[in-house]
């Protein structure tokens, strides 16, 4: 812990450096697009863990310029996510009220919803996905205020931060991805079926200019974000969690078929539950000590690979 700042910055520099270098090699034709996406998705997963540690003030707490510089660069390389300065409020709220109706952070990534095609398709999408969720979420928050489970001021703040955290970078980045996929679909139909339907030339010019950003940053983050949201939304319990009972908030998720997703969120399912018990521990320390932590957690009733959560829409208990 004496070298925590240095270690954190080295991990930051390596992750940023490798992602930009991979982008350069792709741009000059040395690296295929699929390899670029896989490599950068992995290192953006590492940067997500660093951002999470920064939100908990684990690096450069007494040197705000460095602290905020790291947050800014990580956000620019992960623009599909919420503004980290807004996310900090939502994340600290998540720790205080994990698994409750007003746990905005987890509900924003589909926690508590029944599994189906809609949840699967919108799992990584914070813009359209949250448009589908916002009515039920805001209604539940209103009920929680009425029932005395949440202060009105806190409710107002988390709703505003959840919305304004998407403006402008997150929304703009999603729009670029939407246009990218739609453009490729239209080109496919035009080539295969001579449909003649295509975007205007000026949109294609803009998309050509955006191509490096799309391949180097956005597509890897789409893979990373889908993987993270799949893991985090199913290791957190929702809806019937006893307030403040950390034993009911999370599980350890290590089952073999989650491995492809775990790779792109730095094995979040293996270690995030540890974080709920020891909040001020850096992500790499959690990994180093995970087997010792698992032993203690198992002895005290923390669940491991509770796959019933998929059937129960992430409830801790079976429905009665």
Automatic annotation (TrEMBL):
Source organism (scientific name): Rhinopithecimicrobium faecis
GO BP annotations listed: lipid metabolic process
The protein, known as: Fatty acid desaturase domain-containing protein
InterPro entries associated with the record: FA_desaturase_dom (IPR005804)
Fatty acid desaturase domain mapped to chain residues: 32-306
Membrane-spanning ranges: 7-25, 68-86, 160-181
Pfam families (UniProt xref): FA_desaturase (PF00487)
Entry keywords, A to Z: Membrane, Transmembrane, Transmembrane helix
């Amino acid at each position: 812990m004496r070298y925590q700042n240095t270690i954190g910055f080295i991990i930051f520099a390596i992750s940023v450096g490798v992602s930009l270098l991979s982008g350069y090699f792709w741009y000059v034709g040395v690296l295929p697009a699929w390899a670029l996406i896989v490599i950068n998705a992995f290192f953006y997963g590492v940067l997500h863990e660093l951002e999470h540690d920064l939100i908990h003030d684990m690096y450069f707490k007494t040197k705000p310029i460095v602290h905020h510089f790291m947050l800014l660069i990580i956000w620019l390389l992960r623009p599909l996510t919420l503004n980290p300065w807004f996310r900090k409020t939502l994340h600290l709220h998540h720790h205080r009220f994990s698994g409750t109706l007003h746990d905005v952070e987890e509900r924003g990534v589909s926690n508590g919803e029944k599994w189906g095609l809609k949840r699967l398709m919108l799992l990584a999408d914070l813009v359209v996905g949250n448009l589908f969720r916002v009515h039920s979420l805001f209604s539940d928050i209103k009920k929680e205020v009425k029932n005395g489970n949440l202060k009105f001021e806190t409710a107002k703040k988390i709703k505003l931060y959840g919305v304004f955290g998407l403006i402008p970078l997150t929304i703009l980045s999603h729009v670029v991805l939407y246009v990218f996929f739609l453009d490729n679909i239209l080109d496919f139909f035009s080539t295969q079926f001579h449909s003649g339907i295509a975007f205007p030339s000026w949109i294609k010019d803009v998309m050509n200019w955006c191509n490096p950003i799309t391949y180097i940053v956005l597509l890897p983050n789409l893979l990373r974000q889908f993987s993270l949201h799949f893991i985090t939304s199913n290791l957190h319990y929702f809806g019937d969690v006893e307030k403040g009972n950390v034993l009911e908030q999370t599980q350890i998720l290590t089952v073999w078929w989650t491995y492809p997703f775990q790779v792109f969120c730095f094995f979040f399912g293996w270690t995030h539950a540890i974080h709920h018990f020891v909040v001020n521990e850096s992500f790499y320390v959690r990994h180093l000590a995970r087997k010792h932590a698992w032993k203690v957690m198992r002895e005290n009733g923390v669940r491991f690979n509770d796959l019933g959560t998929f059937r129960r829409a992430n409830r801790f208990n079976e429905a009665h």
